[in-house]
Structures are given as C-alpha cells and as structure tokens.
C-alpha cells in the first residue's frame, strides 16, 4: 500500500513539474497581451491558425481541446495524406498503439494500447481494446484488417473507458466513424491506386439527395496486392490478398426533431496467410525424449537465416483463406428539447471466416505442420483437409438520454445497453496437424534408411453463447464560481455478463515406419499407422456470470480560452471467460475471472502563439487487479493457459504537439513513454508468487511519430504538397512469459513514409489530386511477431512490410 501511494505521489509530482511551467507561461502571456487585446484580435484575424479538430469520444461532438481524454484523431484528409486505408495502418501513426496480425489468420488483428491487449484471439476470450463502428461495438477482431469503404474519422482513445464504453476497454477504445450522407448536394468521389507488388486499388462513392432532408450514399471498394514472400511450392503466394466491400447509407431528417440513420456494409477478403520464417534452431544438444528427437530431425531440413527471405517452400498446396462480414446499423435521434434528447443505436453483425495456415514451409514431405489432407505412407489411412471455420452473429441495442439542465449548467447522458453473441469455431473432422521424423536409422551394410514418423491428428469444435447488459450515467456540472471555468464530472456503469462455452476436441498420435533404398530412394516398406496410447477426448462446458461497477470522476478547469487542464479517475473491466486451448478440462470448465483497472490521469490541452501551436500532454498511473495473461504451455505449439495475475501497474507520459510553423508548413510530434510491470502473480497450482515469470508483451518504453505537412507551391492549376512521417517503435518483450522472452524479443524499428502530391486541380466541375507515395522508404527489416514454440525452431518470425510505393488518383465532384 505504501509503495503504491509513493508511486501515485511520484506521478502527481511529475505531472506538476510538467504542467506548472505551462500554466505560468500561459498566465504571463495573458497578462502581457491584455492591454493590446484589439490589436491581438486583428492580428489573429490576419494570421492562419490551426483548424479545430472535432471528435465524438464522449458520445457527443465536441472539440478535441475540450475533451479530457488522451486521444489521437484522424479526419478524412489526414487519413488520405497518411495513406491509411484500414485499421492496421494507423499503428505507425499512434505512439503507444501496437497492431499486428494474428499468426494463423492475418485478417485477425491483435490490438494493444499502452501495452494492454490480448495475445491470443479465440471466440471465448474478449479483447482489452474496444472497437466501435458508428457507435456499435464489434466483438471479434477477425476482419478488422479489411479496408473500410469510406471513413470520416478514426479516434484512438488511450486508457480505460469503462463508463461510456463499458466492458473490454481496459486498454482503450478505437472509434471508426463513416461518412454520413449529405442531403444538400449531389457528390461523387473516385480513388484509384497502383503500386509495386501488383497493387491495384479502387474506391468509389456517390451521394444522392432523395427528398428534402434525406439522402443516400453508396460506397464501393476493391483492392488487390501481392505479398512480399513468394511460395516456391504449390498453392498461392504468402501474403497475397484481395478485398471487396460496399456500404449503403441512408440519412433522413424526418421532422425537425427526428433524425434517422441506417447503414449496411458487406465485406469480403480472400488472402493467403504469411508463415513464420525459422531463424534459430531448437536449443537441444542431446535428445531427452521423442519431442526433442522430432525437433532436431525437423530442424535439419531448414537453412536458418537471420534476415528476411524472399521465398519459402510449401510441400502441400497453400490454400486460400476467406472472411465475409455483413453488418446493419440503425440510429434514431429524437430531440424533445434542449433538456432531453433520445437516441437509439441498434446493430447486427454476422461474420464467416475460414483460415488456413502452413507453419512449416519446410520444402520436404518428411516434415509438415499444416491442416492439409494427409495419407499414410502405406496408403491405407486418409484424413481430409481441415479448415477452421468461424461463424459468429452479434446484435446490440443501446438507448441514450442526454441533455442540458439548470440553465445549461448540468450536462448529462444516461443509457441502457444490451448485447448478445453466438458463435462456433468448427475445426472438424479429424485432420492432420503435424508429421515429422522421430528416428532415422541408416544401415550401410543393407543400403537402407529406415525412418519412424510421428503423425498428430486433431479435431475440435467450440461454441459460445454470450449475453451482456449495462446501465450507465454521466453528469457534468459547471458551478457558478471561478467565472464558470470549472467543470466537474461523475460517471458510473453497472455491467452484467452471462457467458457459456463448450469445447469438443480430439487429439491422437500415431507412428508409421518407412524403409527406403539409400541409393535410389525407392520405398521398400511402409507400415500402417499405429496409435501411441489412447486418443485424448475433450468435451466440456463452462457457464460463468460476471458483474461489475465502474466509476469515473473528472475535474476540468479552463485557465483561458486556449488552455484547459484536467484530472481524472477512471475504472474499466474486462469480462472473464474460457480458454479453448487449455488442455486441462477442469481449467476450461472453471474459466478465468474478470480483469479490473483503476487509472489516474492528469492532462493539459493548450494552444499557443495565437493558436498556431497546439500542445497536449498527460501523465497517467494505472493499477490492474486480476489482469488476464495468456501464455503458451511448455513446448506445445497450440496449448495455452490464462492466468489472472494478482497485480500489475503501469505509468507513463504522452505528448502531442502540432505547430503551424508557416502558413504552408505544419509540423507534428506525438510521443509516448510507458513503464509497465507485473507486480504480483499467483501460481494457481502452488499458490506461490510467480510475478517474475510474466511480462507485458507489447509495451514499448518509448515510441513516437514525427511528421510534416508542407504546401511547397501554390500554382495556378493546383497545390503541390509534401507529407513526410517518421515512426519509432521501441523494443518489446514479445511474450507474456519471461522465460520465452529471449526468443520472442522484438527489436526497435524506424519507418520513414512520404507522399508528394499535386492537389485541387480543377477538372470538369470537380477537383483532381495526383500523388506518389512510399512507405518504409529505407526498406528496414523489422519483426512484428515471434514464436519460440515451433518444433523445428526456437525462434521463428513474421516480418513487417518492406518498402512499398505507388501512385494515387482522387477525383471528387
């Protein structure tokens, strides 16, 4: 308790030392400029100023500078200039945010904010970062890598958001906001793009007024791109991807008081998963058992390389994976008066996903780690191709009441929320997962080579049935004191979750023996598959209920019209659940408990130099209780366990600076410092503290993004603009288990991106823009994920994107 108080005091002291000089400087600036207010006003009118950034982070539209949340917002213009076409692209633009594809399903994203996220992705576990599309929660991260047809804004909210956004936001929240129809004018937009690795991209949208106050908008998307690692074997190339999608939106002002919004989106993605490149062979000198012998024999088939390779080789066809998503959203807002606004948000979403992965790419039939069809060497036993198939449906309903009371001194919002989800992950019938050489005996006298192979066959089906509801409220009061510059906010949310899960699985091991003529390679003998012990059969159900009450308190003070400071306390919780990859039936049945976080934050939102410099900063300290940690069990390639660690804490600083240095030159810097530590973790079997065994796996100590937006020339026919960004990501541990860190450690990396364009060219009553762009211009080789548990390698990696470049054309009418 004392050490925790000391840390909080240290955080407050750090905040005071950071903000006090800014407050004093602002006061001095006000005092110096007060006698010349008229001349200052005239000067401000003549000088360019930073544009206001509007966000909806607090469930209402307001200025970013008036929002007491550490957040980064991208409007449609910045999304285009930064080349952001999907959620995965923003990772290189937001410090303290890490986004990476899931190893066996690249359309599935693992998202971390401030080091908080989920390593594993399965239908029975929820994420720590909530993702919302037009105000509706998206439960599964599968498909989030797909380009969204037309985005108006992306908002990244750092830190717990438990009151307004509810469960599963202990790390933060990401809001995706689409462009709404405009009933005032006919508009059209066409984007065409091409680039290296056969990049072809087209986005089109048309906005059509229907009747007074009503409009419809249709947006279409198609994109194709090749991966950066060729497959020299059968099937597709690693990373090849094709995406299609469309979205239909309707907007209608039925009356002056009633407004309706409807949206339907459909997305399809077809892709070939990347596979892991083996870098380090197994750390085995003398085999201690069959697993070690298998690893050594399999490793002998690989040429281990530290740098990124341009090709790998599968021995069975690399099959295509598919993801398809359909979603409906309905929003209705009725304004009774300024004191009462009613809003309903309803959403329904369906996901279908088939993902295929080959984790071996060994180039030899003697060692495979895939789900492709398998026939025994004697030809008598056959197992079909296994294709893990996920079917998920979710729906949500939210009713909000908001308004202003007491002569606009009370600003309130209250809501009732309901969510339900049903899903299955079907990985049946029983199919091949692994086969490799256990023992190789060469008989020179007989001229034969006899190999004993291990064959592992699996099958599984998982089911979930989730229900959740919540009641929340938030009240902001502006008391009639201090020139009405003070605002006090209290918020609370009560949440209840019902979670049910079922796991059915089979795991069977076999051996087969094959003898070949050493000289010719001709098969002399092949035995039938022989079982090794009984098959492991698993059929368990879990049923858990969870409750939580989360609170927040915020004090905001406007020192001036351009300087706001705030202090806040906030809580959030993440629902407990079940782990389908835990081999212990009792652990699956009992599940794991909820995760809770309490966070303290002090922040400043300010503008300087006659609104030409925007400086926002915050310091925070967070305490986690029963934080959920996923980790691999031993040398297994798939078995994992979830542990509710006793205590964890993190503290840090975030800084965002935007400076309009010249009328045509905008400079930006975003920086984040993070210090995260697991302080207490209790072993569920022994009861001993094992906190030293765990780490935060995606918690870089330092990260930053520096960028410039420069209008190099204003020509008679258009504007020449240059955008450059430089992103730094510090080293990360890469695993939640300390003993795995040496082989999963991720080095720091730096990415340089640029775009040069000719904008606002008048053409046929519209405007045309042409831009060339490049990402990772220095072609840095950097690792985004590493595994230490593949049989053939103690370190295998997925690489980040190499240098890419292209040309974009945008025409809008």
Short description:
The protein has 813 residues and is mainly beta.
**pLDDT averaged residue by residue:** 88
Helix vs. strand class: mainly beta
Report Rg: 28 Å
Q: Largest sheet, described in full? A: 22 strands, antiparallel, barrel
The backbone outline, from C-alpha atoms, is globular
The low-confidence runs, each spanning 5 or more residues with pLDDT under 50, are 1-45
* End-to-end distance: 62 Å
Give helix % range.
Answer: under 10%
Q: Into which percentage range does the β-strand content fall?
A: over 45%
Count every beta strand, where a strand is a DSSP E run of 2 or more residues. 41
Contiguous helical run count = 6
Detailed description of the structure:
- With 813 residues, the chain is mainly β.
- The strands form 7 sheets. The chain has a 22-stranded antiparallel β-barrel. A 5-stranded mixed beta sheet has the order 3-9-10-7-8. It has a 3-stranded antiparallel beta sheet with strand order 4-5-6, with no helix packed on it.
- The N and C termini lie far apart (62 Å).
């Amino acid at each position: 308790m004392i050490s925790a108080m000391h840390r909080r005091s240290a955080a407050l002291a750090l905040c005071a030392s950071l903000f006090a000089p800014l407050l004093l400087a602002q006061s001095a600036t006000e005092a110096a400029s007060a006698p010349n207010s008229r001349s200052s006003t005239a000067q401000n009118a003549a000088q360019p100023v930073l544009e206001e950034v509007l966000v909806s982070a607090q469930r209402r539209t307001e200025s970013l500078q008036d929002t007491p949340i550490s957040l980064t917002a991208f409007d449609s213009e910045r999304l285009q200039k930064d080349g952001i076409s999907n959620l995965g692209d923003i990772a290189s633009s937001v410090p303290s945010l890490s986004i990476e594809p899931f190893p066996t399903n690249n359309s599935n994203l693992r998202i971390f904010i401030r080091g908080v996220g989920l390593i594993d992705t399965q239908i029975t576990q929820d994420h720590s970062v909530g993702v919302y599309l037009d105000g509706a929660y998206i439960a599964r991260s599968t498909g989030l890598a797909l380009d969204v047809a037309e985005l108006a804004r992306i908002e990244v909210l750092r830190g717990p958001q438990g009151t307004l956004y509810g469960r599963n936001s202990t790390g933060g929240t990401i809001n995706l906001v689409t462009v709404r129809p405009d009933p005032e004018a006919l508009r059209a937009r066409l984007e065409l793009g091409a680039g290296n690795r056969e990049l072809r991209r087209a986005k089109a949208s048309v906005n059509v007024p229907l009747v007074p106050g009503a409009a419809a908008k249709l947006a279409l998307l198609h994109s194709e791109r090749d991966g950066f690692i060729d497959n020299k074997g059968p099937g597709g190339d690693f990373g090849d991807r094709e995406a299609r999608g469309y979205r239909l939106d309707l907007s209608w002002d039925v009356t002056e008081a009633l407004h309706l919004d409807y949206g339907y989106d459909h997305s399809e993605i077809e892709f070939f998963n990347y596979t892991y490149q083996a870098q380090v062979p197994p750390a085995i000198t003398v085999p201690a058992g069959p697993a070690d012998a298998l690893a050594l024999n399999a490793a002998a088939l690989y040429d281990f390389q530290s740098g990124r390779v341009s090709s790998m080789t599968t021995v069975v066809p690399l099959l295509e994976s598919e993801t398809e998503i359909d979603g409906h959203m309905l929003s209705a807002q009725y304004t009774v008066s300024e004191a009462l606004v009613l809003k309903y948000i309803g959403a329904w979403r369906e996901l279908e996903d088939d993902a295929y992965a080959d984790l071996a790419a060994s180039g030899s039939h003697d060692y495979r780690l895939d789900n492709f069809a398998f026939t025994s060497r004697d030809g008598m036993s056959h197992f079909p191709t296994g294709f893990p198939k996920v079917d998920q449906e979710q729906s949500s309903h939210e009713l909000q009441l908001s308004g202003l009371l007491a002569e606009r001194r009370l600003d309130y919002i209250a809501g009732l929320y309901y969510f339900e989800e049903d899903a299955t992950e079907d990985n049946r019938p029983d199919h091949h997962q692994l086969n490799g050489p256990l023992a190789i005996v060469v008989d020179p006298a007989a001229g034969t080579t006899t190999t004993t192979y291990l064959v592992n066959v699996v099958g599984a089906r998982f089911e979930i049935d989730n229900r959740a509801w919540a009641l929340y409220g938030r009240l902001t009061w502006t008391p009639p004191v201090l020139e009405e510059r003070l605002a006090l906010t209290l918020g609370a949310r009560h949440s209840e979750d019902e979670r049910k899960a079922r796991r059915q699985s089979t795991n069977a091991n076999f051996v087969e023996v094959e003898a070949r003529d050493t000289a010719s390679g001709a098969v002399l003998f092949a035995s039938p598959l022989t079982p090794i012990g009984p098959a492991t059969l698993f059929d368990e159900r879990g049923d858990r209920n969870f409750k939580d009450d989360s609170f927040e308190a915020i004090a905001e003070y406007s020192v001036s019209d351009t300087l706001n400071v705030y202090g806040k306390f906030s809580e959030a919780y993440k629902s407990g659940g079940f782990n389908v990859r835990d081999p212990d039936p009792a652990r699956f049945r009992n599940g794991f408990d909820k995760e809770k976080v309490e966070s303290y934050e002090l922040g400043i939102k300010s503008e300087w130099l006659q609104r030409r410099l925007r400086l926002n900063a915050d310091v925070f300290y967070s305490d986690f209780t029963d934080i959920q940690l996923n980790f691999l069990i031993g040398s297994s390639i798939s078995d994992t366990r979830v542990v509710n660690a006793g205590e964890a804490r993190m503290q840090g600083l975030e800084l965002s600076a935007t400076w309009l240095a010249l009328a045509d030159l905008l400079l930006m810097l975003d920086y984040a410092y993070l210090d995260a530590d697991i302080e207490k973790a209790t072993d569920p079997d022994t009861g001993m503290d094992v906190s030293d065994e765990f780490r935060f796996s995606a918690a870089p100590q330092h990260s930053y993004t520096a960028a410039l937006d420069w209008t190099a020339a204003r020509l008679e026919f258009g504007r020449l603009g240059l955008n450059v960004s430089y992103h730094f990501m510090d080293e990360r541990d890469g695993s939640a288990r300390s003993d795995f860190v040496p082989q999963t450690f991720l080095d720091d990396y730096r990415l340089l991106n640029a775009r040069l364009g000719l904008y606002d060219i008048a053409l046929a009553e519209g405007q045309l823009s042409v831009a060339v762009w490049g990402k990772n211009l220095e072609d840095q080789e950097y690792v985004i994920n590493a595994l230490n548990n593949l049989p053939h390698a103690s370190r295998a990696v997925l690489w980040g994107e190499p240098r890419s470049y292209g040309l974009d054309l945008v025409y809008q009418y």
